[in-house]
Backbone:
């Protein structure tokens, strides 16, 4: 049967949800995946507007502009995901067999991973946008501490810098900070530790496109507030120029 619950973040909801006439949840989710893929590619929402009425009208129409760097294959793929008619919208089977989606795609069986970084050379793993969606929970820092009382905080940003340059920059900034040191490092990741506040910061870098990478920072603290002081107030602002700005490419 059709669903009738009005739910979801407004900028991501499918037009049939807005119509309040009932909708197929699976087809609505495909629309939302299209929004996520567009954001990962462009860096901004396709139908967003400060005026909610205008935004809903944009969603109903399904008309969005693509960045100039969008390939014809990706433009066609996203357009099929964001088809305003759920009956003609691309299906899961069609997604799996789409040429853009299949490019570089390999089925991966999830295995337990020891997050602890080792000083070894590893080639960067390349992901398409749907790979990123599939592991959106990020890396697991639970192995760093036995005590489960303390929460892990994660955040991501996109950068046009090379992974090695990002890591070198982090090392340079850490060298200027008191009581923070590099514990371990590899080609696509670095682990930091604050000696006084029992804070661990693990940064992982994955290739998104030929020009862009996704940088994910996970933080776990034993001293309340240490993450805000060390990451948000000190280290993160010093890395702000590494964040990719899509507007500069327009």
Residues:
């Amino acid at each position: 049967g059709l669903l009738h619950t009005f739910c979801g973040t407004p900028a991501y909801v499918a037009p049939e949800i807005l119509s309040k006439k009932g909708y197929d949840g699976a087809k609505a989710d495909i629309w939302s995946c299209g929004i996520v893929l567009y954001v990962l590619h462009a860096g901004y929402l396709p139908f967003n507007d400060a005026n909610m009425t205008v935004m809903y009208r944009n969603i109903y129409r399904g008309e969005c502009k693509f960045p100039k760097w969008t390939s014809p294959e990706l433009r066609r793929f996203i357009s099929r995901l964001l088809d305003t008619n759920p009956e003609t919208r691309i299906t899961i089977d069609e997604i799996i067999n789409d040429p853009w989606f299949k490019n570089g795609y390999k089925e991966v069986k999830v295995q337990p991973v020891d997050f602890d970084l080792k000083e070894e050379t590893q080639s960067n793993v390349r992901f398409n946008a749907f790979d990123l969606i599939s592991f959106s929970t990020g890396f697991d820092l639970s192995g760093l501490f036995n005590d489960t009382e303390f929460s892990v905080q994660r955040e991501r940003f996109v950068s046009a810098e090379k992974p090695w340059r990002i890591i070198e920059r982090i090392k340079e900034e850490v060298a200027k900070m008191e009581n923070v040191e590099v514990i371990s490092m590899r080609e696509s990741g670095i682990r930091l530790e604050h000696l006084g506040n029992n804070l661990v910061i693990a940064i992982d870098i994955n290739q998104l496109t030929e020009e862009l990478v996704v940088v994910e920072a996970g933080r776990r603290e034993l001293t309340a507030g240490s993450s805000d002081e060390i990451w948000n107030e000190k280290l993160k602002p010093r890395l702000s120029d590494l964040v990719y700005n899509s507007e500069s490419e327009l």
Q: What stands out?
A: The chain has two domains: 10-102, 129-249. The CA atoms of residues 155 and 217 lie 6 Å apart. The mean pLDDT is 78.
